[in-house]
Amino acid sequence: MSEGTLYDKVWENHKVTTLPNGQDQLFVGLHLIHEVTSPQAFGMLRERDIEVARPDLTHATVDHIVPTSDQSRPYGDDAAEEMMSELEKNVRDAGIEFDDPTTGEQGIVHVIGPEQGITQPGMTIVCGDSHTSTHGAFGALAFGIGTSQIRDVLATQTVAMEKKKVRKIEVTGELGPGVTAKDVILTIIRELGTDGGVGYVYEYAGEAIESLGMEGRMSICNMSIEGGARAGYVNPDETTYEWLAGTPEFADDPERFEELKEYWESVRSEDDAVYDDVVTIDGSEIEPTVTWGTTPGQGIGITEPIPHPEELPADKQETAKMSQEHMRVTPGETMEGYDIDVAFLGSCTNARMPDLRAAAEIVKGRQVHDSVRAMVVPGSQRVKAAAEAEGLDEVFREAGFDWRGAGCSMCLGMNEDQLQGDEACASSSNRNFIGRQGSKEGRTVLMSPEMVAAAAIAGEVTDVRKLPEVAQP
Predict the structure, then answer these.
(1) Distance (Å, whole) CA 212 – CA 368
(2) What is the band of 472 on the pLDDT scale with cuts at 50, 70, 90?
(3) Which domains does the chain show, CATH number per domain?
(4) In what order do the strands lie in the sheet with 342-345?
(5) Cα 222 vs. chain centroid, distance in angstroms?
(6) DSSP character at residue 372
(7) Whole-angstrom distance, CA of residue 463 vs CA of residue 141
C-alpha cells in the first residue's frame, strides 16, 4: 500500500477510528450541500430529532435546478421551486450559510468553494455530488457521497469510508498549441478507461500538470470520477497558495494564511513516497481531444480516426457499436466535420474565467453558425460579474451566444436548458451518456471550451488549432 503520499497523510490526520466493518471513520473538514441530494437527509434528521452537528463547517448553494434564463421566484418549474424552498427552510433552521441567488455568491458548488477560499489543502471535503473530486486540485481529499452519508455527516461531521490505493499519473512535457487541461483528462480516461481507476485515488503530477493554473487543475480533478477513481488531487504549491491568498477567506487575514500554509506544505507527498501504481503520459503528444461515443472514455485526438469496434478489446466492442450507431459516426473517419446543433459552454468542469476568456478570444469578431444555438453559462455569479466587467458578455452576445445566469444548466438538463430530439451538442461538460443533456435521442460531444467555441462558429466539430488566435496554453 501507498506510504507518504498526500492521500495517506490527510487520511491519517482526519481518521477518528476504525469501525468494526473495517472502514475508517473520518472527520469532515467541509461539507458542501445543494438542493438535489440534501432534502432527504435533512428529513431523516428531523425524524430522529437530531440537529446538524457543525453548521459552521457546512456550506450550501443552489445549482442543479436553478433556472439560468429567469431566476425570479417562484420558479416556473414546480419541482425546482419545491426543492429550492425545502433547501431554504433546511439551511435557515440549521443555521447554515447559504449562497442563494440574491447574494451574488451563488453558483455551481464546485466553483464557489474554491473561489471563496473555503476549499483548502489538507482538508477532507464531501458533497452529495460525484464531481466533488474537483476540490482535490487544492490538495484536499474530496469525495462525492450518497444521501445516507449526507445524513451521517450532518449528524456527526464524520463519514465512514474504505481506504483506497494511490495511482500517480505523471503527465510529462509541455502541452502544445490549442491543448488544454480538458484534453489532458480526456486522454487519461481514454488511456486508462472509465473503470481504470476503480479502487484508486489519482495523484496528478508532472510538468504538464504543474504548469497549469488552478482552473486547469480543477478541470482535471473534476473528471477523476469519469475515470472510475474515488478522488483525484494535485499536491499544493505556490500556484495553489497564490490563488488562496486572493480569496475572500484570506484576503484580510494574511497572518492566518501563513499559519495554515505551514500545514498545507506538510501534507504534500514526500519525494520518496510509495505509490501502488505509476502511469506516465507524454503531454507533448496530446492534441485537442473530443469524444466520438457515449462515454468519456470513447475519445480521440481531432486528427485521429474513429476506431473500428473490432480493433477494440472484446469487452468494449459491443458498447462501441451501440455508441457509434447512436452518435451516427463512421469508423475510420475523424470527428472533424461532425455537424452540431448546439454549443454549450458551462459546467463545473469548464465555466471559470480562463475558460470564458479563451472561448471569447475564439468567437470575437465572428458569428455563431446559422444552424447552431449557443449558450454560455458561467459557473458562478462571481464569474459572471467578473466576465461582464471585462466585457466578455458583449463579445459572446455579439457573436450570437445566449448569455445566461449561473448554474449547472445543460450539463445534466435538470432545468429548462436541454437538448431537443436528436440534436448534437458540442459541450464543455463532463458526461456524454445517452439522455444526460435532457433528450434520449440527443448526442453529446465532449471537448474543451476553445473547441466548443470553434464548433459554434463553424457549425461542426473543427480543429481549434486552425484558427490564428490560438496560442500556447
Answers:
(1) 29
(2) very low
(3) 6-161 (3.30.499.10), 165-285 (3.40.1060.10), 291-466 (3.30.499.10)
(4) 401-403, 373-376, 342-345, 424-427, 443-446
(5) 4
(6) -
(7) 36
Measure the CA–CA gap between 473 and 470, rounded to whole angstroms: 9
| DSSP code per residue over 407-455 | S-GGGTT-SS----TT-EEEE-SS---TTTTS-TT-EEEE--HHHHHHH
pLDDT confidence bin for 103, thresholds 50/70/90: very high
426-454: pLDDT as tens digits: 999 999 999 999 999 999 999 999 999 99
CA distance 111 to 121: 16
| pLDDT tens sequence across 286-324 | 999 999 999 999 999 999 999 999 999 999 999 999 999
Please list, residue by residue across 160-185, b when 16 or more beta carbons sit within 10 angstroms of its beta carbon and e when fewer do.
Answer: bbebbebbbbbbeeebbebbbbbbbb
Q: Half-sphere exposure of residue 372, counting CA atoms within 13 Å on the CB side? A: 29
| Amino acid at position 447, single letter | M
The conformation of residue 75, written as its DSSP 8-state character, comes to P
On the CB side of 10, how many CA atoms lie within 13 Å of its CA?
29
Order the strands of the 165-172 sheet from edge to edge: 232-234, 200-205, 165-172, 277-282
Q: Identify any residues that bridge with 232 across adjacent strands, giving them in sequence order.
A: 202
In the structure grid, which three cell numbers stand for residue 383, read together?
464569474
Interior angle at CA 413, CA 455 and CA 214, nearest 5: 65
Residue-wise pLDDT for 68-91, tens only, equals 998 888 998 898 999 999 999 999
Q: What angle do CA 342, 345, 347 make, to 5 degrees?
A: 120
- Total residue length of the chain: 473
Does the pTM of the predicted model rise above 0.85?
yes
Residue type, 383: V
CA distance 381 to 100: 10
- Do residues 200 and 164 make contact, with C-beta atoms less than 8 angstroms apart? yes
| CA-derived radius of gyration, the chain | 21
- The helix (H) or strand (E) run that includes residue 187 is helix 181-192
CA distance 240 to 263: 13
Q: Where are the beta strands (DSSP E) in 198-247?
A: 200-205, 232-234
Percent of the chain beyond pLDDT 90? 94
Question: What are the φ/ψ torsions at residue 234 (nearest 5 degrees)?
Answer: -125, 135
Residue-by-residue DSSP string for 112-178 = HHHHHT-S-TT-EEEESSGGGGGGGGGT-EEEE--HHHHHHHHHHSEEEE---EEEEEEEES---TT
